[in-house]
Amino acid sequence: MGLDIPLVEVNHMQGHILAHFIKNKEEKYPQFPFICMTVSGGHTQLVLVKDYFDMKIIGQTIDDAAGEAFDKAAKVLGLPYPGGPLIDKYAKEGNPEKYVFPVSNIGEFDFSFSGLKTSLLYFLKKESAKDATFIEKNIADVCASYQHTIIKTLFKKLIKAAQQYHIKDVAIAGGVSANSLLRSELFRIGKEQGWNTFIPEFQYCTDNAGMIAIAGHYKFLKGEFAGQDIAADARLKF
Known about the structure:
It contains seven helices and five strands, in the order αβββααααβαβα. It has helices spanning 12-18, 66-76, 84-91, 114-130, 134-164, 180-193, 209-222; strands at 34-39, 44-51, 54-60, 169-173, 196-198.
């Protein structure tokens, strides 16, 4: 206040989405309107982005987020936190079709991962009762199959949303967008669907200052400043 420097408030999830507009080597940026699938430890959302701050959540998880599903599965498998990157690592050595886990079908564009997590838990209990070393012997295949199911669930709804809203620019963001299978599937499916696909540079996928800065930049340009009466809000809406 003393230096007359404006204060800008930033929505964390908007920051993840606007990370796509951080300058990159290819100078490739999504065009409005586009759909962004934000996938993190606390959120899994499908967002219709009409402008920098004109965003509408059209689908989201009704229970666990995808990142949470990865971390909880890792805990059951005896892997340290955060478990998502380790599941991704083991999955590269496994067969994604070795074990079949349920793909949720909740609502039109919503997600659910609690059933998948429970299914894995009971599966491991059953198999470990037969062989105490089951997890150790089959961890790569279990990780690959479980990860495959999460990614399949995500893209099932993303494809449906893009078709219904007639969207050709499709993006992903959030910490889980660093997952190697999620990234490769976006490019593969995007090619099949005729999408223009976008992922922030790796360092801008997980929580970072850059995404908050770019969101603050566009708010500054709009002249949207805050007073000192603001406070953090864990459930702030778009």
